[in-house]
Amino acid sequence: MAKLAKALGHPARIAILEYLSKQVECVCGDIVDELPLAQATVLQHLKELKEVGLIKGEISGTKTCYCIDMQVWQEIQWMFADLFTKTIKNCC
Amino acid sequence: MAKLAKALGHPARIAILEYLSKQVECVCGDIVDELPLAQATVLQHLKELKEVGLIKGEISGTKTCYCIDMQVWQEIQWMFADLFTKTIKNCC
DNA sequence: GATTATAATCGCAATTTTGCGATTATATAA
DNA sequence: TTATATAATCGCAAAATTGCGATTATAATC
Questions:
Q1: pLDDT (tens digit per residue) in B33-51
Q2: Burial, B90: exposed, middle or buried (Cβ in 10 Å; 0-12, 13-18, 19+)?
Q3: In this prediction, what percent of chain B has a pLDDT beyond 90?
Q4: Bridge partners for A60 per DSSP
Q5: What is the pTM of this model?
Q6: What would the pLDDT profile of A18-33 be if each residue is shown by its tens digit?
Q7: Nearest to A70 among B14, B18, B88 (CB)
Q8: Chain A contact set for B92 (CB, 8 A)
Q9: Per-residue pLDDT, B87
């Protein structure tokens, strides 16, 4: 849970996910163009998102297509919902 | 958004929030006892959660009562829900 | 085979985070 | 007033993250 939140804890990675969520085509180069960061940096963020399982990459030729992993995506959605919808017994 | 996710991106901070969510009494010392970390470390995590607005602390005497800020809590809940319930147009 | 386009990796510097011992501050109790 | 309990702060070391230039790998194209 903390790991997933951590992966979301960087503006570039949020931006990547938002981009991927509305894009049908999701080639690496496009993401690099979208962000004000060097290719190596973007790739590093993609790698981190991949390590956590949030996205997956499919290589076809010289291009790689990055996509949100719907299954993990939904699991995370539930996990967060679960945390935030706890009944809070506040005292102050 | 990234800032909030970042604040959630550490197991100790998740543990603190989960503890606070089910505790009515939420004195600093109790949280320290709950976690396998030194007092200074726990306090640092509390400070980070506070900076982001997730929790608030009310001093009364020598004790301080920490609580989840319900308003921010709910805003975050929506923010995350908003991100995760986007319609994804996947390609791979 | 050589060239080009794309993606991935390496290695480094700068910065940030994490964890904690030691100290300080403050209110309560003796 | 002194002692005690609790919380907050300081300052440091170790580790992790961030960003990127340079290089390497690989497939497609000429």
A1: 999 999 999 999 999 999 9
A2: middle
A3: 72
A4: A63
A5: 0.91
A6: 999 988 778 999 999 9
A7: B88
A8: 26, 56, 58, 65, 67
A9: 73
Query: In Å, how far is B37's CA from the nearest CA of chain A?
Result: 17
Nearest CA to A30 among A63, A73, A70, A69? A63
A34 touches strand D (CB under 7 A): no
User: Would you call A2 and B23 a contact, using CB atoms and an 8 Å cutoff?
Assistant: no
Statement: residue A90 has pLDDT above 80: no
The C-alpha angle A9, A15, A20, rounded to 5 degrees, equals 120
Which residues in chain B, range 51-70, keep a C-beta under 7 Å from any nucleic strand C atom?
A: 60-62
Angle at CA B91, nearest 5°, toward A55 and A38? 55
- A contact set with B (CB within 8 A): 1-3, 5-11, 13-14, 17-18, 20-26, 56, 58, 65, 67-68, 70, 73-74, 76-77, 80-81, 83-92
Q: Are A17 and B86 contacting, i.e. CB atoms less than 8 angstroms apart? A: no
